[in-house]
Amino acid sequence: MRALFGRGGRRRPQGYGRELADYRAQLVRQTLRIDEVLGEVGDLIEALRRRDADVEDALERLTATEQALDEAAEGLREMLAPEELHPLHVEYEANLERALRGIVTAERGCGLTRLRHRGPEDEEPFTYWKRGQQNVQHARLRMSELTDALLSWEPGTPAEASVAARLHRADAED
Fold first, then answer.
1. Which of 10, 28, 53, 174 has its CA 20 to 30 A from that of 17?
2. Rounded-to-integer distance, Cα 28 and Cα 141, Å
């Protein structure tokens, strides 16, 4: 009887083994590097806000970080996510773009300090640094949630990165 109906139990969809493993390996490499860079740049922008960093040095580091993250974004675009994970992968890319906008905003704040008609107590650069730091921080948090969802997805289940899905995964692990 068993031969007529298969092995029984839940069957996994075919064709995900090697491709999913390769995707996850690439994703882990990319996201670890991106998260590390975003953590460092978030700390740098926070130091600017506290006046603990030199603006000229920070501007150089921000520019270098922006270029490195642009390259990482290109690498993400070249990755082939499984069809079910494509929306989450695209959302990850969008949040990386948000972090890049935060870095550009912080760079603008640094540029404002170079203007001769602005005094040392001008608050506008601090507003730019605050907004930039918040964009980087919020993008990094969402990217972490998306990475968890992308890495824990199992074929045959919906790919979600909502709070409800995260709580459901946490309950399943306990």
1. 174
2. 16
List pLDDT tens digits, range 108-154: 999 888 877 766 677 888 999 999 999 999 999 999 999 999 998 88
pTM beyond 0.90: no
132 alpha-carbon distance from chain centroid: 15
Backbone angles phi, psi at 85, to 5 degrees: -95, -5
CA distances from 80 to 16, 20, 21, 98, 137 (A): 12, 10, 12, 21, 27
**CA nearest neighbour of 76 among 133, 33, 47, 113:** 33
The interaxial angle of helices 124-152 and 86-113, nearest 10 deg, is 160
Count CB atoms within 10 A of the CB of residue 48.
Answer: 26
Measured CA angle at 39 (ends 38, 40), to 5 deg: 90
Give dist(CA 120, CA 118) in Å, integer.
7
DSSP 8-state assignment for residue 120: T
d(CA 143, CA 42): 14
Query: Which residue type, as a one-letter code, is found at position 96?
Result: L
Give the 3-state secondary structure of residue 13.
coil
What domains lie within the chain, and their CATH numbers?
Answer: 27-154+163-173 (1.20.120)
